[in-house]
Amino acid sequence: MIDLRPVGYVIGLLVAALGATMLVPMAMDIFAGNDNWQAFLESAILTSLIGGLLALACANGVTQGLSIQQTFLLTTGVWLALPIFGALPFILGATDARFVDAFFEAMSGLTTTGSTVFAGLETLPEGLLFWRGMLQWFGGIGIIVVAMVFLPELRIGGMQIFRSEGFDTFGKILPRATEISSRISVVYFALTAACGISYFAAGMSAFDAATHAMTTVATGGFANYDASFAAFGGTVEYVAVVFMILAALPFVRYVQILAGTARPLFSDPQIRTFVVIIAVLVVVIALWRWLAEGAGGETAFRKTLFNVTSIVTGTGFASTDYMLWGSFPVVLFFFMGLIGGCAGSTSCSIKVFRYQLLFSSIKAQIRRIHSPSGVFTPRYAGRTVSEEILSSVMAFFVLFIVSLGLLAVALGMTGLDFITAVSGAAAALANIGPGLGPEIGPAGNYGALNDSAKWILSAAMLIGRLELMAVYAILTVNFWRTS
Q1: CA distances, 90 to each of 42, 84, 96, 226, 373 (Å)
Q2: Hey, is 383 helix, strand or coil?
Q3: What is residue 150's predicted lDDT score, i.e. its pLDDT?
Q4: What are the angstrom distances between the C-alpha of 305 and each of 18, 145, 278?
Q5: 394 touches 418 (CB < 8 A)
Q6: Which burial class, exposed, middle or buried, applies to 38 when counting CB atoms under 10 A from its CB (0-12, 13-18, 19+)?
Q7: pTM for the complete prediction?
């Protein structure tokens, strides 16, 4: 029988901490003279009370280490529990949202997906807008810790290739999480502050700069306006591009820079490939727009650069309706969202390193066919890749494609059209944010979808953010039979 007390204890502490953070947007609403502060006070009391009671009830089972089963449960349980309580300010506050909508918004925030069900964002109280930003900011730093600590330990999706990188002197999993969190938090805070200051210098108000800095560094995509970044000037878009790229790089490299070595940042094959991918896509789409539409000049280039970077990194901001650019760019936008940034960053989707491992494996297989007597092994960053890692990566690709297909079919069964169902499934599973089409595309939102579709998409966001297997594993009978 799996002992759930250590899992409950950690989840309880995190829920209680989430409740305490609700006092920040409450104070903002009080300062702004909004009555919405009462909703945050009620939510904070309820969340902190339940979280504290859960932690106290499970305190007698606390241990220094977690079993594999407990780690799976903790990883999934945190991302399931926090959106439930993160939804309370939307239910009790000015949006007066139903639970399905509030949960969808909170799940979208904490998984840094960026899909929203709310329209008229400009009319919402400052506290609620800031709370949306905070949810994404928490989710951003949370997924970095999960990617650096839990997923390598669980051998999910090839992440074990980074198992000891940069953090090979730590002990058991919970002390390791604490140590890594403290190091990464310094970088995360610094990057957020730099982004906010840059936004403010580029012309944003102090409030918009602070909120959008959180959602940019988290590569989340929540904005304070229905028009997203179309509400701002050109300089702001360039600032956003810089920080979206920085947030999509492995945070362990920043930690290593603080430790006195910058070489890994420039020698990392993930980073080089990621930058090249963005550059190529920007050039291709910019040339297409120039040749097919005559859209040239600085403005066209800036819009292309911004929206390509936003989708590749999984941020999901939009500064224009790129659905109007033609069929070729739209197809590219669908597939570029399935690339993602680097492992160990706040970005989402499949991740660059998995494609590199896939192509390395294919290359080795082709060479074996040409030279059957030769010995060819896939390599990554100069190192031989084990069969275990390759099998894990291949399983991830297969599971991702199968999950995408099943989710699209399920969404189609709820009544959604083909484009909305397929792009919505991809946007949720890859945590991109906007889908394609007039309803959920860059010019729309998810508010008009039926409740069944919203629940399916909420589940897809959770599954995709935790690299699929972390969620699927606990749904098997064998998982619960193992002691």
Answers
A1: 12, 11, 6, 17, 64
A2: strand
A3: 74
A4: 35, 29, 8
A5: no
A6: middle
A7: 0.93
